[in-house]
Sequence to fold (335 residues):
Amino acid sequence: MEIGESVVKAVILHQVGNRLREEPLVLADECFAITDSISNVILGGYLRGIVSSKNQYMLSHESDMALNDVAHHTLGFFSKKISFEDLSKNLATHLYSSAHHPNIASGDLFVILFDKLKVGDVYRSAIGIYKSESKQQYLSARIHGKTQQLEVSSGINPDLIDKGALIVDGSDIIYAIDRLSSRTKYWVDDFLMAKQIPNESTKSAVATGLIEKVRENIESPLARQEFCREVIALCSDKEKVLGEEIREVSEKYVSPDVWVNELNRLVERKGLVDTKDISVSSKSLQTKLNRIFNRINLGNDISLIIPSDLSFSDMEFKLEGKSIKLNITLERKNG
Fold:
């Protein structure tokens, strides 16, 4: 998607409180007047700040997509069934009802109509939804003759998006940001009801998590080490490692259910669109795995951290009364 020719067509602001704290929802009836300078600030912050592959999501619903409120309301606008003002009020009302925790902060909700976003060879419109939960303090200087004054003012910084979403007409992919997600996850989970489209970083994290889980389920330290060697070998002499390749190695050591169950758990926990076809950078994966594999679990709550140029070869484990005797053999990887 290209946004270089994009323009701002309309902006409206609603105030959304937390209904659980009995804070009000204040809906505006009219849009702001837009100047070129305001438009440039919005395009430079709110539009450019959200369009990135790492922010790609898909709207979803557990039973019927027609029941996804954001999808329903935006489709009503794009199909010219409701006005932009009515769309913004519907979205603000839905956001207000999505507050299920008293700690959710109140804030200003900007709804913005963008136009001339180029998708392929077609120009499309898009709806931007941005909630500001924090305001920045600014210093401004005033000069009257020889007298200088500094004043403190507060305002919204469009370059620092607290929560945002961009829905493009005719596209299944939306863009979403939740900078404050560590506090609450209602923006993506409850308001948008969206699942993330995995990017390279996410796929690598999923692959690493799967490998760690398989490794944990291998009882023998020697078998664990052999599994690690086989996985590292997959990263040699190729740019990408496929999830199917890792799965095939894993099933030599653990039940196939371990891989399937852990993949489903990770997809659900991370809020991802189902990702069965994993493909990750060999270099990135190997770097992560080297850090993980250098720690060897010997059993009985005993772990061994070994240098990267050594590999675990053998171990004798003896319990003698209150004493534990270990005889560990390490090999140099370069022989």
DSSP finds nine helices and 16 strands in the chain.
